[in-house]
Sequence to fold (64 residues):
Amino acid sequence: MPKMKSHRGAAKRFRTTRTGKIVRRRAYANHILEKKDARRKRRLGRPGMVSDADRKQVRRLLAG
Fold:
C-alpha cells in the first residue's frame, strides 16, 4: 500500500508547535489595510491557534 500524503493545501497553511498545538495565519491581514487601525493590524500579524473544534480535522489533514 502506498504512503499516505499530507493535504498540501493544509500543509502550507498550518504548522504544529512543539507542544502539539496547531498554528495558523489570521484572516483580514492582506489588503484594504488603510482603514484598519495600527493596533488591529499588529494583532493580525501574530499567529493564531486552531480552535479545539477544528483541531482534530486539521491534524488528520496534516498526518501524512
Summary: Helices lie at 8-13, 38-45, 52-62. Residues 8-62 form a domain with the Factor Xa Inhibitor fold (CATH 4.10.410.60). The chain has one domain: 8-62. Strands lie at 14-16, 22-24, 48-49.
